[in-house]
Amino acid sequence: MSDSGSGSEVIPPPPRQNLVMRDILRGNIVTTILAVVLAMIVGGILIAITDPAVQQAAVYFFARPTDTLVAIWNSVSGAYVALFQGSIVNFGAANFGDAIKPFTSTLGFATPLIAAALGVALAFRVGLFNIGARGQMLIACGVAALLTFNLNLPMWLQLPITLLAGIAGGALWGGIVGLLKARTGAHEVIVTIMLNYIAFYLVTWMVRIPGILQKPGSNQPISSPTPENARFPLLFGDQFPLLHAGFLFVVAATVFVWWLIERSSLGFRMRAVGENPHAARAAGISVQRVYIYAMLFAGGLAGLAGMIQIQGTITSGFDGNIDAGIGFDAITVALLGRSRAWGTFFAGILFGALKAGSYTMQALQGIPVDIVLVVQSLIVLFIAAPPLVRTIFFLPKDDSERSARKRARAARKAARDDTRAKGVIA
């Protein structure tokens, strides 16, 4: 179509559905899903390479290539089928309860991980890198054991008091970080690392000393068991031992964090500080106060994770390793969830599924659990590099990537023009 006045051709705008599809393909959800798929593909390659049957068939690949291909298929498909059956649904089970038991195990493994990751994600939104969830979990367990294990109250009092004591202990331990950050400018990474060590050795010492946390009548470095009336009840009975009422508290915590960050006035100030603390300060927001609030909430959520451990998962007594690596895995889950409440929730379920299914993979296929850890690491690697994922799957580039490419082309063109100009002068 031509414009009669100027003679120039008018290019019609692209259809609206094309723009919608482009925005969807550029979005974080698609990138995250494809990052998981890509990690599974690379994990499948590792599974095939390390499988003895594949290695044996590869020796005579050029004589009978189909043997190698069949061995690769059997290895990779068997591993991921075992992963699915161990984490979602076991189709070979004799009854419905046994069929869904893997999914309840996934939720059980994910429950403390989601709670700790919510604390890390909340701090991320404020611009704080909280790697102190481990110490906050340990202190929460220590405080709850010291203050509540010997109360002998009815369950309707003992359980919530124990839970609140642990959350308060974790919040105070996290609040130390926020206070030091706000008042002295101390870097939260250094402070949380040191507080992790302090918490670990403090709890380890406490469970070794009779009269403090050590189990009475024992010389082993372990605490007393969690009182029966302080334990989370199982949601669906003894058939599903890993799924307890702690999962309901995690769902409530996710809703709370979503409301706090996305809907409350305090959450608005937190987001503003996370985006640009200098602009937030110029707008009249107390950045120091926001730092303290953020770390109090983050520590409390990590404390919830610690309470889920001793009130639901490990009730026979705890020591300095009660966090079971959850404090550091929470960083990975928060990154995968893009520091959003519900994104973190579903990322935690994914990691719970990987953990639950890894044991089935090892039992049925003889695949080391370490392969699942590699897949988790690859997921985070690809999540941290969205341009790489978009390039591999030929997704449209976002505006920042296209601007960067234009600037790079302009810089190269300017460099070439400068070189030619110098050659002409010479």
Which strand-content bin applies to the residues?
A: under 5%
Q: Cα distance, first to last residue?
A: 49 Å
Secondary-structure content class: mainly alpha
Question: Radius of gyration in whole Å, from Cα?
Answer: 27 Å
Instruction: Please bin the fraction of helical residues.
Output: over 70%
The total tally of domains equals 2
Sequence of secondary-structure elements: HHHHHHHHHHHHHHHHH
Q: What's the average pLDDT?
A: 88
| Residue runs with pLDDT of under 50 for 5 or more positions | none
Tally the helices. Answer: 17
* C-alpha geometry: globular
Largest sheet: none
Please count the beta strands (DSSP E, at least 2 residues each).
Answer: 0
Give structural notes.
With 426 residues, the protein is an all-alpha fold. The mean pLDDT is 88. It folds into two domains: 99 residues, no CATH class; 241 residues, no CATH class. The relative contact order is 0.16. The chain has 17 helices and no strands. 71% of the residues lie in helices and 0% in strands. Helix 5 crosses helix 14 and helix 6 packs parallel to helix 8. The radius of gyration is 27 Å and the shape is globular. This is ABC transporter permease. Its main location: membrane. Keywords: Cell membrane, Membrane, Transmembrane, Transmembrane helix.
